[in-house]
Amino acid sequence: MAFLDQLGVPAVTPGMVVMWAIGLTLIHLAVHRRYEPLLLLPIGFGILIANLPLTGLMTPGEGLIWRFYHYGVEWEVIPPLIFLGLGAHTDFGPLLSQPRLIFLGAAAQGGVYVAFFAAHAFGFSLEEAAAIGIIGGADGPTTIFLAAQLAPELLGACAVAAYSYMALVPIIQPPIMRLLTTERERAIRMKRARKVTVREKLLFPIVAAMGIVLLVPASAPLIAMFMLGNLFRESKVVERLTDTAQNALMNIVTIFLGLSVGATMDAATFLRADVLFIFALGLAAFAFGTAGGVLLAKLMNLFTKDKINPLVGAAGVSAVPMAARVAHQVGAEADRKNYLLMFAMGPNLAGVIGTVVAAGIFLTMLG
Amino acid sequence: MVTATDIFINGIIGVFTGITVLYLLMRILAAAVGRPARGSAPADRASE
């Protein structure tokens, strides 16, 4: 009977059932724990439906979700559009007012390279190791952008790891921050930052885009879109475009991104021992990145009169603005009246740029 | 053939070079347009 022949039920495998559980877990975390819901909810649902048999949703050349993935992710369209929206949301004032804090964003990328080395030592190829290492940058779109080009078979696992650790910043970072700092260091009050002029904020995206792209051309898709979004915002003459970039466009591409990334995680691709390594190495990358930023801040304090609270170094991982908020909260434990948030936003934003530069260099050498 | 060490060294150098360039650009911007010019119109002095 034709109806019985086309049933999906007999084609269900144990691997698919395990993936349903993973998808449902991510949906639960998104809905009830509010862990990065904008991405984990569509990713979780993408996992669920991609692991239902005989749907053809991911059939190359014709599946609906395959088209979202192919034209949005493989063609490197969606991550740069997300960066357009991020740029439109970003205020570079805190970074411009204290330029030296940008180095903390660079130091936090150390975790990327530690994890890259470790992944390669564990047997991953250079390309796979790069995709795993970039998880340490705590930047979802950059992780997806790099993995899609260098190690598409690891895209789903790397993306879920990156967004999961971004959501777990308040749990992962504080113990490392407390371990590496004394209570006196955590209570350091930083000198009030200078005011930034409108003209500085207007010119910054232009000079930053030109400077970074001239140095690392492979970073252009992400950096150019990031700075374009920021230029929209700071010009104050294209409110409609700014609003679209911040809201409608960002929301649309987030839907396509989450669904298609989740749908790459079929049982055969995801249920491998490698994936456990990916999650473990991603966590190590994140931890080393946190430590790198804190330790560089402590080192800078040896040479500077205006002390830096080392906690803001931990915000050099790109999880904006969560890492900055965590730095503020841990600082407030030592001194309730110490307002670190705006200081921490500087390295937080620098981390975004640092991660994109790191990804650009991986692409230059491996792409 | 590219090795992991090549990538590691080039990556660290590349990130710090890129960040240093950005730092210098920010300092130049601050020096050039960060302070209001003498006698400039109030709109030029608008700040955060």
Give an overview in words:
- With 367 residues, chain A is an all-alpha fold.
- Chain A has one domain (63-366).
- Chain A contains 22 helices and no strands.
- Chain A has helices spanning 2-5, 14-32, 37-50, 64-74, 78-89, 93-97, 102-107, 110-121, 126-133, 140-150, 155-167, 169-180, 183-186, 198-215, 220-235, 239-246, 248-263, 267-270, 273-301, 311-314, 322-334, 341-366.
- In chain A, helix 5 (78-89) crosses helix 16, helix 9 (126-133) packs antiparallel against helix 10 (140-150) and helix 16 (239-246) packs parallel to helix 17 (248-263).
- The N and C termini of chain A lie far apart (51 Å).
- In chain B, 62% of the residues lie in helices and 0% in strands.
- With 48 residues, chain B is an all-alpha fold.
- Chain B has one helix at residues 4-33.
- Chain B has one helix and no strands.
- Chains A and B meet through helix 6, helix 7, helix 8, helix 9 and helix 14 of A and helix 1 of B.
Order of helices and strands of chain B: H
Stretches of chain B where pLDDT falls below 50 for ≥5 residues? 37-48
Count of DSSP H/I helices of chain A: 22
How does the overall form of chain A come out from the CA principal axes?
A: globular
Number of helices of chain B: 1
Distance between the termini of chain B: 50 Å
Rounded mean pLDDT of chain A is: 92
Tell me the helix content of chain A. over 70%
Name the features.
heterodimer; A: 367 residues; mainly alpha; 22 helices; 0% strand; globular; B: 48 residues; 1 helix; 62% helix; rod-shaped; disordered C terminus
Q: How would you concisely characterize the structure shown here?
A:
The complex is a heterodimer of chains A (367) and B (48). Chain A is an all-alpha fold.
Outline the fold blueprint:
The complex is a heterodimer of chains A (367) and B (48).
Chain A: H1 2-5, H2 14-32, H3 37-50, H4 64-74, H5 78-89, H6 93-97, H7 102-107, H8 110-121, H9 126-133, H10 140-150, H11 155-167, H12 169-180, H13 183-186, H14 198-215, H15 220-235, H16 239-246, H17 248-263, H18 267-270, H19 273-301, H20 311-314, H21 322-334, H22 341-366
Chain B: H1 4-33
